[in-house]
């Protein structure tokens, strides 16, 4: 598979990621906090997770509480990340030369943030996403160099 194809696949995945983040940021804006806590309470009180005082029940209620507390941050974070990624994907797909260095810097910043969050939260998914972003940064830089060479040769 050529680097060009890998690059196209990578930016398509990043575009999908950005769209999902944007959607994930919009949903908490629509769903009232009372619906989230009410759902968690209903699941726990109906013993759908086993013992209402058990580990799963406590985790669900704790997660619902964190969702309500961190809602504004989550909305801003997800919407901003989604829009940034979609904007970069749009520019890279149209081969806007100035977008390549910007994309490399922004995605590198995402990698640093993902690693820091992974250390603090012990997330297993964040290192995977950080590694994927590193691969995408490499592909973006390779594509940028190739486009510059092609423009000089033309």
UniProtKB/TrEMBL annotation:
Keyword check for Transmembrane, yes or no: yes
Q: What are the protein's UniProt keywords? A: Membrane, Transmembrane, Transmembrane helix
- What InterPro entries does the database record attribute to this sequence? DUF2127 (IPR021125)
Q: Which residues cross the membrane?
A: 20-44, 74-92, 99-116, 122-141
Q: Does the keyword NADP apply?
A: no
* Pfam families the UniProt entry points to: DUF2127 (PF09900)
Q: Which domain of life is it from?
A: Bacteria
Protein name, entry field: DUF2127 domain-containing protein
Which species expresses this protein natively?
Amycolatopsis regifaucium
Q: Provide the organism lineage as a comma list.
A: Bacteria, Bacillati, Actinomycetota, Actinomycetes, Pseudonocardiales
């Amino acid at each position: 598979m050529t680097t060009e194809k890998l690059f196209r696949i990578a930016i398509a995945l990043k575009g999908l990621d950005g769209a999902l983040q944007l959607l994930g940021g919009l949903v908490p804006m629509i769903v009232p906090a009372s619906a989230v806590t009410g759902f968690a309470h209903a699941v726990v009180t109906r013993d759908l997770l086993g013992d209402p005082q058990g580990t799963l029940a406590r985790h669900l209620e704790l997660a619902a509480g964190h969702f309500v507390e961190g809602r504004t941050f989550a909305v801003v974070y997800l919407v901003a990340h989604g829009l940034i990624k979609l904007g970069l994907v749009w520019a890279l797909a149209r081969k806007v030369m100035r977008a390549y260095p910007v994309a490399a810097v922004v995605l590198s910043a995402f990698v640093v943030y993902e690693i820091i969050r992974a250390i603090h939260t012990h997330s297993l998914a964040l290192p995977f996403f950080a590694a994927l972003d590193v691969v995408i940064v490499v592909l973006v830089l390779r594509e940028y160099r190739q486009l510059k060479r092609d423009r000089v040769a033309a």
